[in-house]
């Protein structure tokens, strides 16, 4: 019979115990910032519960239920005339189950639908993530209020007037903090969060204002302080709307810092907003601050997918530049670089020679020895020629067994000599039946002034045709 090792049991018990403590800590923080009975500016336990279910699935059920049960009992401890212990336990169980079930459904649904992210799917995944958070917090609000109604803690009128505020508080907590808690839990307990990988691309291509993370954070905190202090003194709704400007430094962080720093900055800024708000008690404008928190977080998550898409674009662009097989420039990239050289010639005059060459009887190599040997021949020919030309010359694959060469600062005569040397240096390719010497035919033109690349290519192609007609293994210029 398989028995669970004692140390594994002890370590998971410790994890669950510390999860319960963490949950109670963030619940306590939310209660400190309550601005109406049961309603605080933002509700971090919503984010922690959802993050737990997303990361560890059904194993999160007992610790979250236990934490909510403790929270319920804690509330009774503060009452001067609490009901009997049995009623306390029963009521706490109803409230705890309402919260736990709602966030468990959201977390399980996330697991079932998100799966592994691919890089290009990042924006869609962020959208699914936001939708799940919106629906889960709505469900959590509904079930929580129903729980309070069932235990006689809130009247129907009370519920009707407070459900929106309750929901927005939960939404702000879950939206801002779920990804942060996912990061924290996966780091300290080594849970798998590899599905966040598409958002964790290295931002090494974004040197703009990097390494100023503390200053960016300071600007955000300063904006929060300024806005809430002004709100307190002027007490005008328009002042509170300035809190939305926090999204500017936040987006700066998103585009120039790591995923971790983005999530930490969101957590810090939400805490700072809640603390300043609590300090001054600008309760009338609570909704503005709550909506701002939601919008700033949602913006940041969408923003996070932008660097990953940029990175993907750069990778794809890199792939289109290089010919996969021979590792020389692709046809499109060759033309792009050649056009640049032609333009450069307008300022300083130097000759340019264009060469088109094609392996001779290549079809026969393919037919006799197979396409793998054919591929090997193409690679060998390209590598040999690239090793013999100068850094300033350009080699590209036109397609099939045809290549392009742009010889920098060489007139027709010099190019002819160079190319003849290349022709004689072509290697032999190893086949199962012994090695086979490679041959090629070359057509060369000197690109005249005011001639387009396409016209020069046509002339070089005709020269190549002549070389083939003359019996192959020739250079025609
Ligand atoms: N192994 C391999 N073969 C390729 C590749 N691309 C094209 N080919 C083959 O290359 C051959 C090109 O033959 P051609 O250039 O038309 O004819 P050839 O036998 O070289 O004859 P000449 O050019 O007239 O000397 C065709 O059989 C193509 O199928 C490739 O990437 N790998």
UniProtKB/TrEMBL annotation:
Cofactor: Mg(2+)
Membrane topology, from the record: Multi-pass membrane protein
Record-given protein name: diguanylate cyclase
TM annotation in the entry: 12-30, 36-56, 61-77, 89-114, 126-151, 163-185, 212-232, 238-255, 262-282, 288-310
PANTHER family given in the database record: DIGUANYLATE CYCLASE DGCM-RELATED, REGULATORY COMPONENTS OF SENSORY TRANSDUCTION SYSTEM
Compartment(s): Cell membrane
InterPro entries given in the database record: Diguanylate_Cyclase (IPR050469), GGDEF_dom (IPR000160), MASE1 (IPR007895), Nucleotide_cyclase (IPR029787), Rev_trsase/Diguanyl_cyclase (IPR043128)
Listed EC numbers: 2.7.7.65
Gene3D superfamilies the UniProt entry points to: 3.30.70.270
GO MF terms held by the record: diguanylate cyclase activity
Root EC class: transferase
The GGDEF domain, residue ranges: 350-477
GO CC field: plasma membrane
SMART domains reported for this sequence: GGDEF
Keyword terms of this UniProt record: Cell membrane, Membrane, Transmembrane, Transmembrane helix
Catalysed transformations (reactions): 2 GTP = 3',3'-c-di-GMP + 2 diphosphate
Chief subcellular location: membrane
